[in-house]
Amino acid sequence: MKKLPAWLTYTLLRVGLVIVLLVILILLGVNPFLATALAVILALPISYLALDRQRRAFSQEIAERRAHPERARTRRRGGHEDEDVEDAVVAADAETDLVLDDEREADAADATRTQVHADRAGAREAGAGDAADAKGHPVDRD
To answer: What Pfam families does UniProt report for this protein, alphabetically (predicted)?
Structure first.
């Protein structure tokens, strides 16, 4: 059977202690609201004294995570380093596709601009001898 993480063990024991104290206080006839407040207040020093070993294991686990975050990340993922590599490759491919798409769009825009300039130049050459008004209609010079 897989061992529970220290934080989960400590948390479950503390919640269990509060519930046990709450049940005992209610069975003694204390008002439920007051019993809840007393159970939470009494659970703090009791858990500090009774759950010392679990609290220390929890603290050690936190200290290890802060000292070596990469180990904690690998442990949390179940040791799937190959998935990390695969994710990095997929992300790089996606970034390459975006760059290629941007380049294709830039090439298409350049081709369109080139075609527009060529059309304008051809129109100027064809109508070089003819005068035109602002709308492009031919004007007689006579």
So the answer is: DUF4229 (PF14012)
